[in-house]
TrEMBL record:
It holds the Pfam family RVT_1. PROSITE patterns: RT_POL (PS50878). This is Reverse transcriptase domain-containing protein. Residues 1-149 form the Reverse transcriptase domain.
Amino acid sequence: MKCFERLIMRHIKSQLPPSLDPLQFAYRPNCSTDEAISTTLHLALTHLDKKGTYIRMLFIDFSSAFNIIVPQHLIGKLSLLGLNTSLCNWILDFLTVRLQFVRIGSSTSNTTTLSTGAPQGSVLSPLLFTLLTHDCSDAQFESHHQVRW
């Protein structure tokens, strides 16, 4: 399954527009927390070098991030990004009606059905979460939430 997920991931990446946020560091090759911190500090300090300026920063902790994915909401965003209907339907099937149980030793819990979140350990989960949150950018906050002091 992981091999198939990798094929799907490559296909999704080939279909994405090049306009995705370049300041998205999570789950990208050759990007790290250190790079995100140093880029943020550089941008902030460069801006503050100009007289009479200020900065606003928003830090969000997405605890259990993959658990917050609502498949129908994600599919809407993927459609807006230009992914075709067949691929979106496959992703919807991949994320919904998943059976889960817990096994400890020889004991097994009852099975429950999950229809939100992405499978833990899935190759696709990081990419899907990134695409779900790709439109949370500074431009969105600046244009819709401009506050003047």
